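Form 12-C: Joint structure prediction
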Amino acid sequence: MAIPLIYNVRSVRARWTSAIVAVLGIAGTVGVFVAMLSLARGFKATLVSSGSAENAMVMRAGATSELTGGVDLNSVKSFQDRPEIARGSEGPLIAPEIVIVAPIPLISTGTDANVQVRGVTKNVLQIRRNIKIAEGRMLTPGLAEVVVGKNAIKSYSGLTLGSTIRLGTVNWAMVGVFDAGGTSFDSEVWADAKLLGPAYGRGENFFQSVTMRLANPDALQSLRDALTTDPKLNVDVTRELDYYTKQSGRLTTLITVLGGLVAAVMAIGAVFGALNTMYSAVAERGREIGTMRAIGFGGPSVVFSFMIEALLIAFIGGLIGCIAVLPVNGLTTGAMNFQTFSHVAFAFKITPELLIKGIFFALIMGVVGGLLPAVRAAAQPVASALRSL
Amino acid sequence: MKFSRLIWANLKRKKVRLLLTIGSFAVALFLFTFLAVVKSAFSRGEEIAGADRLVTINRIGLINVLPLSYSDKIRAIPGVKAVTHNHWFGGVYQDERNFFPQFAIDIENHRQVMSEFKVPDDQWNNFVKDQQGCIAGTALAKRFGWKIGDRIPIKNALYGTTKTWEFNLDGIYHDEKEGGDDSQFWLQWKYFDENVPSVMKSTAGWYVMKLDSPDDAAKVAKAVDTTFANSSNETKTETESAFAAGFAKQLGNIEFLILAIGGVVFFTLLLVTGNTMAISVRERTGELAVLKAIGFSGRAVLFFVLAESLVIALFGGLLGLGLAKLAIPVVGTALRGLLPTLIVSVPLLLLGLLFALFVGGASGLLPGIGAMRLRVVDGLRRV
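Section 2 - Result
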């Protein structure tokens, strides 16, 4: 026969000072666990969503990021009319781009951040279709104008609509803000590719990467085969989505490993706290347990009852941890992505799935912390338990 | 310590609880050390930077290069003792994940300016003679199991075309500064210069200069930037530590993250031990009253309680710090390439111990004061 649940609820309430230690220990652990994972998720989501499965990128063979790539105009001309590349009203949807990192001070610290500055072509919005102009207007090709991502305007100082900013040897007028839906483009500054190269002392016929819209997403392989076997070209072809997924790898791993490690060690501490609480709950209740056994509840019922109590404490702890960490959801922070050598803004991303993982983690701590004390409770001989104080 | 046996007997009374509390301390101290070590790994560049060194980069950004001719002009500026130039090589060894910094160095001045990097003279001489020579840091050589004489292929797509550069490992350097960077890879600037496209020839990625005196830093930095003002390549000169700090700040708000986690750990620990001490004092109210009845002062009783929690803190603290000392290098090895080297320093361990004792004292204080104020009659009357 089972011991009524209300017995456990009441006894947790009666011994709340001791229970609260275990609850807070578990809450803290779950909070840190969820926060760290949401940070890693947020960073990964920002980069992964930057790439589209319908776009392909061409870079120099072996280049690890756009910054290390290089493709010249003649190469671009040699493949721009291939049938795998979609066409718009003004010709093929292909964008040879220049990528530069420029030092611009962060608003938060006043120290320089490496901001990614991209020299774009006029058809960029047709190729990257999730990007919209949110304020002002798109830059005019041929003029020294820039448009700025919505996170860049919040993170870096001196970027306001209508102001001018010096990049390289040129002063640029800021004419618009674009919204890239929380992707890494939101941390970028865009200028005309034809002007940006010369402003940094580079030829205007040399690009870092070439992004193109595929006529259909399956055309990637045939484009790759054609370009990589062409002896005149020295290039790699990647799906844009794959490129950005790869760029998120190192920092995501770092945050996940560090966060996992910290959460695991904290979990050991929280289990110690739960064990302490449950052992003292068992010790203080020797007589109650003896009485229950004497009136006919079996050993397994007692074990079960104490496990329920431990799980109840763990569940409350997990819940508090999840609720406490919820406000960080959507909070934007920035970090340097070592792989692209540039600063990216991203937000903590707490998903329901992550919260369920957090609660599950709490319940595991409850099981580990409750099992031994529960067994001890059931193992006490009835007579001596009743005789004890 | 004539009461040590009494304190010891009290500690031993509930062995499981004692072990769990010591365990909680050990876990907290382990985390404390781990977080502190990670934090210092990120800001180490700033700490170990030479106070008498300046770094000059192109004003429009680190990825733009400077003409090599600046070298002599910088050397002529009063206050500059020596100047050397570096170039970022940026190649890939076997796999992109095997990241380590590679610099094309100026063999004539590098040793004088970066004097903390020690290379045995015979190895250095071989390196200078060998155009395709390279030198690796001790940590880097250990990571990939390189030995002197090994041939090291590095693929590079940064300059002109993609090609694999072959190097001979001629020497291994060690940074004599505590916590220094032993993970760099050096090649000869001359070899680099001969193999890059013409636009990159005769350029330097950045200059590092050694000053006669660190007090001149601001003056010399200004003089350098003034020299090249209004030229086609303006410069930005700052101290090595400001340069490193700028990098560390970009990595994101690691300090805040670590403080937040540390705060959660600290608070939980205080609660666990405070609760344990409160329970054990409550259980022993009768005994404490007897002690007072037979003539021990209130202060003596406070001392017993405090001593008990301090002993727990001491054991737990030592255990946690010991574990950290053993485990952190293992974690560091597993994460190499992602994090700078993790170093557990002695001052950090001492700080950790102090922190443990502080928490121990604080958590014993409230129950101890309760015991001190306890009236003998009340204590004896309570069950």
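Section 3 - Comments
Chain B touches chain A through 57 residues (CB under 8 Å). Residues 60-233 of chain B form one domain.
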